[in-house]
Write a structure and sequence with these properties.
Blueprint (H helix, E strand, L loop, with lengths): L3 E6 L77 H23 L5 E10 L5 E3 L2 E15 L5 E14 L3 E8 L8 H5 L3 E5 L1
Parallel strand pairs: 1-5
Antiparallel strand pairs: 2-4, 3-4, 4-5, 5-6, 6-7
Length: about 200
């Protein structure tokens, strides 16, 4: 039997430096209403967005990986965007999309005829889904393990931890993925800032 070596890639501390802070903070620094002030109508005070997101019809979604079969592994189908959108459906979409996206991206960019095993698990982080304006912020994490035979005939196993934050809104969904767990994982808004559109309607 060929020897097996294992290498675990833990890059948790490397991504935090690239996390952008939110572009602006919400503030109620406007003048206080007086007795002569007319109340604002609902159309004049729209629900604030948690951070800068593309307007409906003004964004271009990421081109999802669409690989061909590799080493006996078939590409997976992406989930439909949920309607109606609520905390539960946003969480389910983020979990399913992240799993398919990571799997298909691996097939498209790294898998080859020497790939022997591919294992992927993605779960929503417990109690981390947050309401954000008209949408939801969802954190997912998981584990990605692959094995392939090298030139010497040895089986090399690579284990990766993954983390991603999604913003799922009525007309747009954003994704920002990480390798490992960022140090600033306590703030989903901060981690989602600068996310790439994966759904535009």
């Amino acid at each position: 039997m060929a020897p097996v070596s294992r290498r675990t890639l833990l890059r948790a501390g490397l991504v935090s430096a690239g996390v952008a802070l939110a572009g602006c903070a919400e503030s109620d620094g406007g003048a206080s209403p007086t007795a002569s002030s007319a109340p604002a109508s609902p159309t004049e005070t729209p629900t604030p967005r948690p951070f800068e997101t593309p307007e409906a019809g003004e964004c271009e979604a990421l081109e999802w990986p669409q690989p061909t079969p590799v080493a006996g592994y078939e590409p997976r189908s992406y989930p439909e965007y949920p309607e109606p959108l609520d905390a539960g459906t946003a969480e389910s979409f983020a979990t399913a999309f992240e799993e398919v996206y990571r799997y298909n991206r691996y097939l498209a960019t790294e898998a080859n005829g020497d790939t022997e095993n591919l294992e992927l698990r993605v779960d929503p982080q417990s109690n981390r889904t947050e309401r954000a304006g008209e949408g939801y912020l969802v954190a997912v994490d998981g584990f990605f393990s692959t094995s392939e035979r090298n030139r010497e005939g040895d089986t090399v196993i690579t284990d990766d931890y993954l983390f991603a934050v999604y913003y799922a809104g009525p007309d747009v969904a954003l994704r920002r993925g990480y390798e490992g767990t960022p140090r600033d994982a306590d703030s989903l808004r901060r981690l989602a800032e600068g996310g790439t559109p994966v759904v535009c309607r």
